[in-house]
Amino acid sequence: MRHLLLAIFLLLTPSLLRADPVVVSTHFHQDREALEQLNRELWQPLRRAYAAADSDSFAFCFSGDAVIASGDMPSLNPGKDYLMAEDRRFLLRPRKPGFDLVPRFTERAVSRNLASERGFLEQTEADGTKIYSEFHAFSRRIDGRWRLIVLYRKTINGTGAAQFAAATALEELAKF
Q1: Residue 145: how many CA atoms within 13 Å on its side-chain side?
Q2: Domain assignment present for 174
Q3: What are 175's strand-pairing partners?
Q4: Taking the model in full, what pTM does it have?
Q5: Which domain holds residue 85?
């Protein structure tokens, strides 16, 4: 796990250097307006795109140099490879309602231009099967819109539904 996080850091270093300077502080001030924009510009469109199997809209939620990491079979993938795989999956998926991708959060640190969020995803397939995973997402405002720059996911077996239910819904901003 440490090697995976180090690799993510090394891949992000050039990208982070282009960002606005970030002051590390134990007294973080949450930017409520940025949190609302993040929901509106990233999480809600990502959810709609997944449900509709709209690969173009789904890809629009990621930066061009995004990194996707998996804890299931430890791996790092360039975003473009992940998006090509999702595009193929969307094409093969039956065209019927029921698909959904719902985030719930345990941590949301959002400033004007950068965000770090942790939580759980509930992925629902058309047959009603639910797959739970924990995630850690890093996002940045790029060209005036929030985009994912790093997404780490790991499937949870057994306790996923309970952990998902205990996390905070997307719309519940007051907790953060």
Answers
A1: 13
A2: no
A3: none
A4: 0.79
A5: 2-10+31-169
Per-residue tokens: 42: 């990233």
In the DSSP assignment, the letter for residue 128 is S
CA angle, residues 137, 50, 142, in degrees to nearest 5: 45
pLDDT tens across the length of the chain (176 residues): 555 544 454 455 444 444 544 444 444 567 889 999 999 999 999 999 999 888 899 999 999 999 999 998 888 888 888 888 888 878 877 666 778 999 999 999 999 999 999 999 999 988 889 999 999 999 999 999 999 999 999 999 888 999 999 999 999 998 88
Provide the 8-state DSSP code for 54.
-
What's the rounded Cα separation, in Å, for the pair 61 and 144?
12
User: Is 72 inside a domain boundary?
Assistant: yes
SS3 103: strand
Q: Cβ of 2: how many Cβ atoms within 10 Å? A: 6
- Among 123, 14, 106, smallest CA distance to 67 is for 14
Dist CA 104 CA 88 (whole Å)? 26
Report which DSSP code applies to 129.
-
Backbone angles phi, psi at 49, to 5 degrees: -65, -40
Total domain count for the chain? 1
Domain containing residue 163: CATH number: 3.10.450.50
Q: What is the C-alpha to C-alpha distance for residues 123 and 4, in angstroms, rounded to an integer? A: 24
For residue 1, give the amino acid letter.
M
